[in-house]
Amino acid sequence: MDDVARVGPPVPARRSERRSGSRVRCRRLARPGWVNVLVAAGLALAGCRAGVGGAGVRTPAPTLAPDIEKRVVARNGVVSAAHPLAAEAGVEMLQRGGNAVDAAVAAAFAIGVVEPMMSGVGGGGGTLIWLQEEGRAEYVDFYAAARATAWRGALPDTGRASLREVGVPGAVAGLLEAHERFGRLSRAQVMAPAIRLAEEGFPVYLVLADAIRANRRKLERFPEAARRFLPNGHPLAVGETLRQPELAATLREIAEHGKAGFYEGDVAESVVAVLNAGGNPTALADFAAYTPRWNKRPVCGTYRGLTVLSAPPPQTGMHIVHALNLLEPYDLARLGLPTRSADAFDVLASALRVAAADHGRHNGDPNWTAVPAAGVTSKAFARTRAGLVGTGRVPERIPPADATAHDDAPPPASCAPLEPYGPAPAIRTEQGDDGANASAGAAAGFAAVSEIEGAHAVSGSVIEHGEPVASGSAVEHRTLVASRSVAAHEALSASGNVAAHGTRIAAGGHAGAVVVSSEIPEGETTHISVVDRDGNAVALTNTLSPYFGSGAWVAGFFLNSSAVDFSRADPNAPARSEWRVRTSTISPTIVLEDGRVRVVIGAPGGARIPGSIIQGLVYMLDYGMDPLEAVRMPRIFPSPSSRRVEVEHGYPGAVLGRARALGWEPTLPGDGYARLYVVARVGDVWVGAADPRHDGGVRGY
Predict the structure, then answer these.
(1) Which pTM value belongs to this model?
(2) d(CA 161, CA 279)
(3) Is residue 496 left, alpha or beta, with left meaning phi > 0 and alpha meaning psi from -120 to 50?
(4) Is 16 exposed, middle or buried (0-12, 13-18, 19+ CB in 10 A)?
(5) Under a CB-based contact definition with an 8 Å cutoff, are residues 669 and 646 in contact?
(6) Interaxial angle between packed helices 608-621 and 342-362, expressed in degrees from 0 to 180 and rounded to the nearest 10
(7) Fewer CB near the terminus (10 Å): N or C of the chain?
């Protein structure tokens, strides 16, 4: 990293100023006092700051000392990740001549080593890729999946524990296929940093140490996991070295043999043995048959003339686009910051609330239920919901609306060449039953299982009397860890722990609608944002679901808890695929301006992921903030089912008092948090930011 990686960027100006072509003038924005303290020195050094890609960009100011790990400016490429060692692995690939895909894949394998509780080869996720030279976007869904055909016979006995919510992990297949299609470097090169970290070890960071301490009981259920993470019966301490030789061996198998090193052979046999001991019927043939899904086009919308690409169903990109459509009619900069203006607070909170309600009604696996994503992301549908945004009145709850009538709306002009996600296809059975579509909604609703990243829920929306009850709750999964050995079943049965689902069908709800209890903190996922010198970009989110996934540890890694449990769903429901993917809040997102990358953004954080991404984008695009300044801003999280809105620290009492007078009920933030990882173009340089709420880091060169 050269000297440019130690200086800070200008803050974007308003779009009207950038488009005018005239010299950009300084303007004042109301900020909460704590933000003034943080940015005052930067403002003094930076002087008047201009917009991303705008005229009048001056030499960026130096990054302040507290921000050196969290903010970087670089001319060639940037990697922002949930762990600094992963960011270093990614930028190492860029410096070796690799592209954004090489860097993202290297960072993803590495972060599974250094944040084993958040992601890893036992998990899955999704990746949005922008190929600058071709002007093309690709999305690969490699979320953990369950094969319905494996569940149609008699199920293995779970003993007194269950691993039925473990899906066939997709991370290895998804990362390797993305690398094979678009990477420049060899597989051995991109996997070398992860293997090195696993073999040589690394100092335990704060978040990992805290996760081990908080999940001690889960780790103790499996002796080999306990030996690694609870040596001599004590949680690893901050700064201790963690070495993972079993994981290094698995990674070497993958580096040498590719997908076959994971989905076939010893590793696959060990995983399947553990799954079967936990009552999961996945067979070796199912494990080997897993294929990432490349046929899902990203959703696409526009916001103030910019093009917004995000994750297709059953991930949550349409939530992002819908919320931005609801916000677009408002001049947010004129209203003032939500931390200073009750009117801006009302507009932002109500738009987030409506978007959550509408998205919750529709999301699901599009191979099992018709998802009108093109309708949800259309401007026409947003106009039908505009009367609920920024009214100064706060209804008790927001009933979701049906976007199906708008599903044939044409995409915006800038989206059309990118061939975005289109109208929902008809659902057919595997036998091609032409009459299947009529019952597909109800059948898929029965089988619909939703994932709020880092937590679980049954059904794509949480419903009571046909209306949303919560925008995302967590359900504790006391899913037992299993042994890699032949004694796996005995180890499972001996623990005496049973999976706790904590769900019930809600009165008056559709089939599959449930109420979910909230018992554990959210936030157990990871994200990586990357750009390279050619303008290519990757937004990659990967997860195990709750901390340490299911808790089952095998061949050096933890297995996810991310799949549809077909023992509680119908494996014979009408479907276009024998594989089922649970809905998820992950939302890797890329914003384009005039065909070039403007922002790459994503987040871990459970139900807070979509709202955090939306607010991060608003603070950068509407309020002209530096990426790190935008990431630092306190966030709000309203619920469609009540007037309550969680408020992070940083909102003055006067604003909260005025918001309460409008009808909002500000509350303390709940457990867990989301954190943003962002790269944005500022003039002719890239600016990266990693959320200070976490151990993340950003690197550039």
Answers:
(1) 0.82
(2) 8
(3) left
(4) exposed
(5) yes
(6) 140
(7) N
